[in-house]
Amino acid sequence: xxxxxxxxxxxxxxxxxxxxxxxxxxxxxxxxxxxxxxxxxxxxxxxxxxxxxxxxxxxxxxxxxxxxxxxx
Length: 72
Description:
Layout: H1 9-21, H2 26-41, H3 44-69
Helix pairs in contact: 1-2
C-alpha cells in the first residue's frame, strides 16, 4: 500500500546515505525502519510504558484544568 512521508533535507540525506551503505533503496530501508518501529511500539512492555506516560499527561492536564477553575 503506498504511503507518502515528508522529510526534512537532513533526514532525507541521512536516509539516502544509510540506504546506500546497506545496498538498499530508500524505500526498502524506510519500510524496514517503519516495520521495526511499529513492532517495537506494540511490544507489551513498550506499549504499557507508552500508555502510562499518556495517562500521566492526561492526569496532569485534568489537574491543571481543575486548578484553573478554582475552588468549587
